[in-house]
Specification:
The chain has about 450 residues and is mainly alpha-helical. It is built from 22 helices and 3 strands. Helix 16 crosses helix 17.
Length: about 450
């Protein structure tokens, strides 16, 4: 018995000395203290040895973490779940990852409970189960895990796995934000701004956006910039300071901030008016897929604002924006495309205006059948006489609903004559045969 106690005491001393060496960045000595203990089966030494190698050799680290996990070390089990999730030192295995998270979670390891919640919510290594995800998120949140508090807040906010409850969302989000969770601060700012789970309070929104922005969170920098630009939350409108915060967010690659910063440079608000800088910020946002920036980039190329005029590039960017439903981009793309085909800009504008008038007139005679579904669309081929009278109308592509197709054909016939240009050449080029498309939801 005396011998066993002595050995236990020596092991404890070795662990303590290893921790002191580790804290002092003396990793060689830390390994020398922990390795003999780990090889002898000391579970804490195995875990510590895994931590020691985690920054330099994942294979060696995984070996020791797994030894400790197999002996029931809760934190080691959570780390084992992470290693199998990411494929660090072991082959990635989402099923094994979730198994280790589950075992650690059952031991009340809060980080593992949070990770297990994500596994259930996302269906990683297990069947997707929103209620189970919410259950484990709540367990971890009650242990004070800030990530879990924010996750649980989001679940209550969206009604995922739990009934939607903005009051609960606000309560958990506040707990997380007070622990320094930056995205909880951002989301809390939004809840106060719009009045979700509380009365609207721009002042409190501004306070939380300031806190998150001070930690370098781009979305908070953007929201703070907008509030300062507008003078909201009790702050005095300050375009210069607002531009500074927008610039920080834009510099981190936030597309919407790049768009707004470009607009400030275009108008000279809070910054020097500079068309070149405006174009550069628009382009950066457009390349990330911001539809308004894509339109403004196309406009810059079309008009030569801050860059050389380039109709080809204008068409490219207008086309991207119109594909996302931007109506002005679609209008400009059509005009440029007609000019590219040889029309003058005045002729192209006339074609565009008359086309809109034709669609408007036909719609005024169209009675959509009640049974038609919103997404159903009919495409017609319409032949016109030079007077605008409808000579022939046929279904070029059916909506799948005979009633809807017939209703559109009838509307075109009743709308005859349709507006057409007086110029016979322009009529032959663009109006003699029309392809018209009508969607039921319109």
């Amino acid at each position: 018995m005396t011998v066993l106690l002595a050995l236990a005491g020596h092991a404890g001393a070795g662990l303590k000395e290893g921790l002191e060496a580790f804290a002092g960045n003396d990793y060689v000595r830390a390994e020398a203290e922990w390795r003999p203990l780990a090889e002898a089966g000391d579970v804490e030494a195995q875990y510590r040895l895994g931590m020691l190698f985690a920054s330099q050799d994942y294979v060696e680290a995984a070996k020791w973490f797994l030894k400790a996990a197999e002996q029931g070390h809760a934190r080691a089990r959570n780390v084992a779940g992470y290693l199998y999730r990411k494929g660090l030192g072991v082959s990635a295995d989402p099923v094994l990852s979730t198994r280790w998270y589950y075992l650690a979670a059952r031991q009340d390891e809060a980080d593992a409970q949070f990770n297990l919640a994500l596994s259930y919510l996302l269906g990683l290594g297990t069947d997707k189960n929103e209620k189970a995800g919410a259950y484990w998120a709540a367990k971890a949140a009650r242990e004070g895990n800030a990530d879990a508090e924010e996750l649980l807040a989001g679940l209550y906010n969206d009604g995922v796995g739990v009934p939607q409850d903005y009051d609960e969302a606000l309560s958990w989000r506040l707990k997380s934000a007070e622990q320094g969770h930056v995205m909880a601060m951002v989301h809390l700012g939004y809840m106060y701004y719009v009045g979700q789970g509380t009365r609207p309070s721009p002042a409190k929104a501004l306070q939380w956006y300031r806190k998150a922005a001070a930690l370098g969170e781009a979305s908070a920098e953007f929201n703070l910039g907008l509030m300062l630009l507008r003078g909201e939350g009790g702050a005095t409108a300050d375009p210069v300071l607002a531009a500074d915060w927008l610039r920080k967010a834009a510099g981190q690659g936030l597309a919407v901030a790049q768009l707004h910063l470009g607009q400030l440079h275009e108008r000279g608000i809070g910054v020097a008016q500079d068309a070149v800088l405006a174009f550069q910020w628009y382009l950066r946002a457009a390349e990330q897929g911001d539809v308004d920036a894509q339109f403004l980039t196309g406009r810059a190329y079309e008009e030569g604002r801050g860059t050389r005029a380039d109709a080809g590039q204008a068409l490219v960017w207008f086309d991207k924006a119109r594909a996302r439903g931007h109506l002005e981009a679609a209008r400009r793309w059509q005009l440029l495309d007609m000019v590219r085909q040889g029309m003058s800009r005045e002729q192209a504008q006339q074609v565009r205006d008359l086309s809109l008038q034709i669609m408007s007139k036909v719609r005024s005679y169209w009675h959509v059948p009640e049974q038609a579904k919103a997404a159903q669309a009919t495409e017609l081929r319409v032949a016109l006489m030079s007077s605008g009278a409808v000579r022939e109308v046929a279904v070029a592509r059916s909506s799948g609903s005979p009633e809807l197709d017939a209703s559109v054909v009838e509307a075109v016939q009743r709308a005859s004559p349709l507006p057409v240009p007086a110029d016979p050449t322009l009529f032959r080029q663009s109006f003699q045969v029309l392809i018209l498309r009508f969607r039921a939801e319109e």
